[in-house]
């Protein structure tokens, strides 16, 4: 197992101080009810041009200092009841770390869990209350490659906001004259109602069983094959890449569950849906609603049927939100989340979270020395499927997280391997 040594730890201050008028960043109701965790992303760069190798940290520090002047809540402190951020310019935490192995040992491990070494210990998916909302780690491998990881507070950022920040940081790193344009105005769309019980937030469940992750790739041609299967056998029109891929991995999850128990168990898949638009694209914060898709029979699990059901659930949610006042959206989102929590607590369904970080540009993040060979997250503590753009082409990578025992069954599923390839082959 690779070990890491901290070379330096510092707080990166803002290049320009936050104006007094922006000192108190009001969190929106959607921010307030969200999971108060650090979301952990990592970007791996194995070959660094010689002219960059000795100044990478300085480039990242300088560009981070400047971009934080625009993303000032990330350098502040979240108050205890998650109603505002004190934008006091404390700064973002920044670690320089030496890892005692070549990068290949990490990214060629069949289980994605090995990437945990490029994140600050115990930080991924942990509370963001008493830690900087942004913690960055620059990891140096024995081979000369590096990884840049960022853990951002989910209270302040959803996936869209995180991708906007990372892209703006990379753009600033390449060109210090670049000027980001984020708007921290989500509370104007989703204000905290005065009568709201401010202790009401989404709880997280961390099962005691160990979870592991593996990444699979759906090539463009295999996604087309899946779309053809779905459209030929149903009335589904124009299924998306994520719809057909999530239908397949969901079906494989059901097969795995039936092999384990000998019977069918209903399922709940929780899809995250971005609310931009109608919320403006440059609005930072949390602007996400969830789609709840359940199956209660084996017939509903079939690819065409599941995609049809998913599309119907998505359309019903969009229709519901279309005529809804924006300030009512968080209450409705909270209601959906509580419905999901009730199902989870009853234990009647196998539950899978599903989110898409596609069309975000994260697979091409270039700080000045080229694009990454791998983009991934730290392993979470719940069953989920996270979809990302592959490093080249129009395919998809999906990071699948299950319990260790379930993964052993899941990864040998013949239908899965017909359409998706492990990004790293297992030798175990």
Automatic annotation (TrEMBL):
Q: What is the lineage of its organism?
A: Eukaryota, Viridiplantae, Streptophyta, Embryophyta, Tracheophyta
Q: Does the keyword Acyltransferase apply?
A: yes
Keyword terms, alphabetized: Acyltransferase, Transferase
Q: Which residues cross the membrane?
A: none
Question: Does the record carry Manganese as a key word?
Answer: no
**Record Pfam families:** Transferase (PF02458)
What's an example of a GO molecular-function annotation for this chain?
acyltransferase activity
Q: Which InterPro entries is this protein grouped with?
A: CAT-like_dom_sf
**Protein's name according to its UniProt entry:** Acylsugar acyltransferase 3
The family assignment reads: Belongs to the plant acyltransferase family.
Taxonomically, the superkingdom here is Eukaryota
